[in-house]
């Protein structure tokens, strides 16, 4: 039996991975688990929690799923990508997929561009149609500074485990990502000791599973997880889409 543990990003929830989860559940008989990290989800309440709570929840989900399956795949988005990398490095995984992983974060140039578009749409009365607004407006006023500090701690905690990863690894990154610089993948390539496969998406932003390229992104992950180990090992080098 195959199991897939998917981990969402900071201030997010399972909805960030929903198109991929829906495809895996429809097309396979795999066990799929998408836990909500403490304080996350559509009803944000991050104040009571520390990064250790997020790590413990991910570890618990990993071990519970591992007991039920013979093969375990890890998929993580943004902060969840780093937590998935931590799990793969510490406990192992048959495959690892990192979506917009936040190894390096907060691309200020791209973020400024996103804010400018929000202001423009507000002036034009088209704010409700802005993709970024739809994804983030419910978070307004609900992210305390303490939570950002816990995020930074989480990144510092998970980073050393990247060098312990031995799993076949796929990284998907949007060039137009407003939070994570796409050059992040260069750092990952140096830190993860196995050859990683990288696909860049020229028009994708941070929410890579929910943007215009979502069908291609989901298809890429699905195809990668379906490949046999021998086929996966042949996928080396850099691929640009």
Automatic annotation (TrEMBL):
GO terms for cellular component: membrane. Residues 37-209 form the Serine aminopeptidase S33 domain. Keywords: Hydrolase. Substrate binds at residues 10, 79. Pfam families: Hydrolase_4. PANTHER family: AB HYDROLASE SUPERFAMILY PROTEIN YCLE, MONOACYLGLYCEROL LIPASE. This is Carboxylesterase.
């Amino acid at each position: 039996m195959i199991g897939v543990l998917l981990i969402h990003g900071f201030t997010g929830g399972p909805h960030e991975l929903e198109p991929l989860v829906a495809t895996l559940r429809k097309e396979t008989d795999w066990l799929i688990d998408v836990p909500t990290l403490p304080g996350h989800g559509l009803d944000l309440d991050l104040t009571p929690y520390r990064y250790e709570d997020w790590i413990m929840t991910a570890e618990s989900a990993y071990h519970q799923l591992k007991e039920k399956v013979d093969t375990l795949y890890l998929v993580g988005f943004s902060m969840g990508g780093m937590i998935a990398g931590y799990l793969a490095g510490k406990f192992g995984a048959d495959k690892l997929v990192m979506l917009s992983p936040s190894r390096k974060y907060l691309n200020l140039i791209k973020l400024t561009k996103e804010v400018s578009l929000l202001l423009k749409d507000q002036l034009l009365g088209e704010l409700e149609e802005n993709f970024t607004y739809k994804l983030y407006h419910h978070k307004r006023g609900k992210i305390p500074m303490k939570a950002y500090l816990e995020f930074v701690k989480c990144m510092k905690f998970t980073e050393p485990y990247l060098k312990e990863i031995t799993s076949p690894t796929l990284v998907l990154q949007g060039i137009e990502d407003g939070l994570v610089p796409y050059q992040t993948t260069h750092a990952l390539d140096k830190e993860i000791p196995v050859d990683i496969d990288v696909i860049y998406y020229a028009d994708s932003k941070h929410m890579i599973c929910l943007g215009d390229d979502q069908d291609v992104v989901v298809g890429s992950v699905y195809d990668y997880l379906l490949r046999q180990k021998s086929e996966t090992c042949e996928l080396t080098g850099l691929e640009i889409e």
